UniProtKB/TrEMBL annotation:
<protein>
    <submittedName>
        <fullName>DUF3703 domain-containing protein</fullName>
    </submittedName>
</protein>
<dbReference type="Pfam" id="PF12487">
    <property type="entry name" value="DUF3703"/>
</dbReference>
<dbReference type="InterPro" id="IPR022172">
    <property type="entry name" value="DUF3703"/>
</dbReference>
């Protein structure tokens, strides 16, 4: 299990706060996705991120996304603990559960990339 550094934790907290105050659902998802990328190595933050994603999916009445987030809530902590998570994955249903994705340039230094 990898621990997040202080800079990564700070980015995670800023993205989660931005998600709460974003004016549109599209912007909320973008911030949650960025927080997800950073949170993956940390079991607690990774799980909290998927809980926030589930909450947003439920508010939007998006059944497919909500079901996908329930599955991700179940596997988030074990995946973080074992180091078996797809780097760069945004955490959304459309991204695929185990599909690695490109890490945004500004987040890559935090992720060892």
């Amino acid at each position: 299990m990898t621990r997040l550094g202080a800079a990564a934790r700070d980015i995670y907290r800023r993205e989660m706060a931005a998600a709460q105050s974003a004016p549109s659902a599209e912007q909320r998802w973008r911030h949650l996705e960025r927080a997800h990328i950073v949170s993956q190595p940390d079991p607690w933050l990774h799980t909290c991120n998927h809980a926030a994603m589930l909450s947003l999916a439920l508010r939007q009445r998006d059944r497919r996304e909500a079901l996908g987030q329930v599955v991700r809530l179940i596997v988030a902590a074990p995946g973080s603990i074992s180091g078996r998570y797809p780097a760069g994955n945004t955490g959304r249903v459309g991204a695929g559960l185990m599909t690695p994705m490109a890490i945004p340039d500004d987040l890559a230094p935090l992720m060892g990339g």
